[in-house]
Amino acid sequence: MSYTAVNVKVTGYIDDDKKKVGKTINGIKVYGRDILKDYFLANNNISEIIVAIHTIDNQKLRLLVENLVDFSVEVKIVPPVQDWINGEFKVSQIKNVQIEDLLNRVPINIKKSKVANELKGKSIMVTGGAGSIGSEIVRQITNYDYKSLIIVDHAESPLYELQQELKQNGIHNFVPIVSDIRDKNRMNMLFEEHKPDILFHAAAYKHLH
Fold it and tell me: pTM of the prediction?
């Protein structure tokens, strides 16, 4: 099974139910959790692990993420059924695990007048904007009255997913740009074209945990 809109191929399912291990779902094999080893991930070019347990609590999710932290993969999560759009699940709703997913409390609203004044009417650029840290910065910025928001990331699929998420939330005042910040000439062109007043630099060579 694959969803070509974001160029993703499903390699397998993981389940703790031993009765399901070894079986297939639509031709895709079900594995036990012990398959999560470096050699398996590398041999199958696995870059994402998606947690699709709707009833998982914060403590179990935190433990699961901690067990995956040493692997070069992104850990994502499917939202609860009640958060599906019009009762239907969209691929673009799959998101990186956020800090609020791991805590037994709701996220704090950090919208404050000082920040609002700093961002009001400004052109803002976020590098690494589709990553776990950069995407959260982007989400927070969209709460304010900025002039323009430029989201730069070298990873096309995560950037597309973030773009779809923002649009579904009614946010359209942003420009997604696929670019590598190591490309000096390209970045000079972007700075010249968009003239950002504020830069949030969240790009990194590897995943941040």
Answer: 0.52
